[in-house]
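Before any further analysis, backbone shapes were mapped to integers, which produced the following:

***
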Amino acid sequence: MVIKIAVIGSGDFLLKMETITDQLHDILIDSYPYEYPQEAAEIVKALKPCDAVFFSGALPYHFSEKERSVLPIPAVYLGQDEMAVASSLLAVFYHKNIRLDRISFDLIDSDLVESVLSDLGIETPLTHILDFTDMLDTSFDMEKILNYHLALWEQGLTDFALTSVHKIYDQLMALGVPAMRMMDPESSLIRGLREAKVKAELFKSRFSQIAACHVLLSEDGNIKAIQDLAKEISASIQELGERSYILYSTRGEVDAFTEKSSLFPAMLNGLKIGFGYGSAITEAEQNAKIALQFCKQLDEESSYYILTDEKVVLGPFPKYRKSYSLKNDDPQLMEISQKTRIGPANLSKILYFCRSRSSRQFTAADLADYLGVTRRSTERLLKKLLDHGYADAVGEEMTYHQGRPRAIYELSIPIY
């Protein structure tokens, strides 16, 4: 399968890419040049149909974060590594014969240079290196990077500049400052494109995965709601029994419906839906049945859950987008499940609840709200954890109403 990859980078980077196309027979490159890395954001908005996006480095990838977040395809970037640093240093030493302490550097991770020198047994201290990682989180100033190299050269402290930004290289050369761009080794380019290809193929596979949909129509519901749903996810309808139907679609169509239903919840119109993903129809159907059972436990007239082939439950939509796993294959968690007699599903829900919170501590009411069960059911789960030392009562919370203070709990099991 030929994968089309949109490559966003400087003109020089794209020229380098052309030299390796004969080694990538199963990859078609569509080039998008920029002059400044900040332009990547607008380029992403104007991308033609492709299977993945490959950025020339962390800068264009960072500057297009907002635009990337809505892309329906994977995006990767070529990261700097020890190979790039070592190749660049070797080129400077061999062709320019310049000492390390007479070179000024700029790059995202200065530890890379130190790592290379350590591996080579070179103990020369680095005094002229600019790490601009922090600038990405505030305001990236290319003028600051340019002036850094220029000032050192004008003061006679350096003889050469090694830059990670192609535009900085152009500006330094125009000012008469000897400079070189950080090299992108051919092997790194090929590896990066191969990674983009693998992610694109995985995405395509998941997008076309079978999705079954069990639907329960409320007593006062209208069959038109199911017909509209089938139209939204490009599915056919089969009646199973009174007010019960099954539809077949793809994971890509259901994912698109999920995004739309969060904006237009009225689309559900009295439907309780269980979506199931699977590599085969029988697996998708079984997962859809399980997902529908979660819906039946809710008081909501209209809602739906999704159960993936990895046994991850998503929902209930459109009100929430919680997730937890029905599969528990971690030996330590299996032991906890067996000792406490808490089922893998409920234990997984509790772990996901704790991961989703900024605070380590919680009340039974907090957990009950997340699990969608009664306070009494939650207190029974917590008692099992307390009895076996997997949770601790760490305090009390005073309420604004009359009654007993609410206990505050904290888990003492691994949640990550």
Remarks:
- The mean pLDDT is 87.
